[in-house]
């Protein structure tokens, strides 16, 4: 079988190149013969329009509606009005500075702890913890405030989970959740006022001089194995995480679907765009999963050999599932004449064997992977998920900057003070 040709630039995580080597791909930067295009980030919609009709890319247009914190919370809160018992896995959240005065009153009224995070921040930068009695200062940038959830502790230490999600197709929607990931531990014991005891970001906790990387970055599989030995049903935890992942993606599905259809439409039976997402999930003291945020560019850096092996394996399995196109690559390279859009479509239409080979390759890749398909499935909750999706598609477009404060307050799920 012909090697998959990949257009990948140098400024990507080393684990990406290791995964390409794992699947025996041929790397040809800038080549139009590449079926797979891999980028760490894409800054303009024009990038998708400039792709060749046969190319698949590891980025999805408009994914920022899911991964920018304010837009994500706005989408969730719109659906919470209709499905309050379904969207119960997001901490109480406020979009700032739009709800500045309302949030300030809530701080005084509830006497709770909150975490304020910049809308597009990363690596723990710009995060502020507001404890009861602290003075609240209006942020000068778009941000969200979330109620602080008391975590399930291991060795009296807070941790959360970086769960890897493959959004392999938008049209139709197809979602996989990886049965491993990174458990990110605080570098200080719980119960202190230090950021190192309340924030789990690895880059932040690496700055603690008293910590070793093995203490703060572990594999989910290892942590769950320990929890299982204590009688905890980790399969139930995964099931709840799966449902939360599906419902989060559905919350902004309409906008993303429209963008994909306009900028990167599918060809025949395969999607031309996919994305690896990083869901940050916290287990509370009752082991209920809470989704804190979604990352469009989860770190693929590794700090230990175990983490390197896990991430390289995850990426190689992801590519085989999302881009099972080696048979198509072979047919593409066998042509002596230059390809163009119509000739490529003719190849797809007149060679049913290629389509069958793609389907077989994908099925084999899924079977041999730790990625579990969570949508669509025969899960009994899928009927409810489809109902939620139908409602989301019916909602008119909204710009959070144009909404009135009373409407935003109502969307928080509480009455204004």
Automatic annotation (TrEMBL):
Keyword ATP-binding: yes
Domain spans labelled ATP-grasp: 80-323
Entry's Gene Ontology BP terms: microtubule cytoskeleton organization
Pfam families registered for this protein in UniProt: TTL (PF03133)
Origin superkingdom: Eukaryota
Residues annotated as transmembrane: none
Record key words, sorted: ATP-binding, Ligase, Nucleotide-binding
GO cellular component: ciliary basal body
Gene3D superfamilies named among the record's database cross-references: ATP-grasp fold, B domain (3.30.470.20)
GO MF terms held by the record: ATP binding; metal ion binding; tubulin binding; tubulin-glutamic acid ligase activity
PANTHER family, per database record: TUBULIN POLYGLUTAMYLASE, TUBULIN POLYGLUTAMYLASE TTLL11
Designated name of the protein: Tubulin-tyrosine ligase family protein
């Amino acid at each position: 079988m012909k090697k998959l040709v990949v257009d990948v630039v140098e400024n990507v995580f080393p684990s990406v190149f290791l995964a390409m080597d794992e699947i025996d791909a041929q790397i040809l930067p800038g080549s139009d013969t590449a079926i797979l295009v891999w980028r760490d980030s894409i800054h303009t919609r024009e990038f998708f329009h400039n792709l060749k009709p046969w190319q698949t890319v590891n980025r999805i247009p408009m994914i920022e509606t899911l991964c920018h914190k304010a837009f994500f919370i706005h989408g969730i809160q719109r659906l919470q009005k209709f499905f309050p018992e379904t969207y119960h896995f997001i901490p109480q959240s406020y979009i700032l500075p739009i709800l500045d005065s309302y949030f300030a009153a809530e701080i005084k009224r509830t006497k709770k702890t909150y975490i304020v995070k910049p809308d597009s921040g990363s690596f723990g930068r710009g995060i502020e913890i507001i404890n009861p009695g602290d003075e609240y200062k209006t942020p000068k940038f778009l941000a969200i405030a979330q109620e602080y959830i008391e975590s399930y502790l291991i060795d009296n230490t807070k941790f959360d989970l970086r769960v890897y999600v493959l959004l392999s197709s938008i049209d139709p929607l197809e979602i996989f959740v990886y049965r491993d990931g990174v458990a990110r531990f605080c570098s200080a014991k719980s119960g202190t006022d230090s950021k190192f005891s309340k924030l789990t970001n690895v880059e932040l906790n690496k700055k603690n001089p008293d910590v070793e990387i093995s203490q703060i970055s572990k594999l989910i599989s290892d942590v769950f194995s320990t929890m299982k030995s204590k009688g905890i049903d980790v399969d139930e935890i995964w099931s709840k995480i799966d449902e939360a992942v599906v419902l989060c993606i559905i919350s902004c599905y309409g906008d993303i679907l429209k963008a994909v259809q306009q900028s990167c439409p599918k060809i025949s039976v395969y999607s031309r765009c996919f994305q690896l997402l990083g869901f940050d999930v916290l287990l509370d003291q009752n082991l209920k999963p809470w989704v804190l945020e979604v990352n469009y560019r989860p770190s693929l850096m590794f700090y230990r050999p175990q983490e390197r092996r896990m991430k390289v394996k995850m990426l190689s399995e992801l590519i085989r599932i999302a881009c099972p196109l080696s048979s198509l690559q072979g047919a593409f390279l066998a042509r002596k004449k230059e390809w163009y859009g119509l000739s490529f479509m003719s190849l797809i239409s007149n060679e049913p064997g290629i389509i069958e080979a793609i389907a077989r390759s994908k099925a084999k890749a899924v079977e041999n992977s730790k990625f579990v398909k969570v949508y669509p499935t025969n899960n009994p909750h899928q009927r409810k998920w489809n109902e939620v999706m139908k409602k989301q598609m019916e909602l008119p477009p909204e710009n959070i900057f144009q909404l009135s404060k009373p409407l935003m307050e109502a969307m928080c799920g509480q009455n204004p003070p």
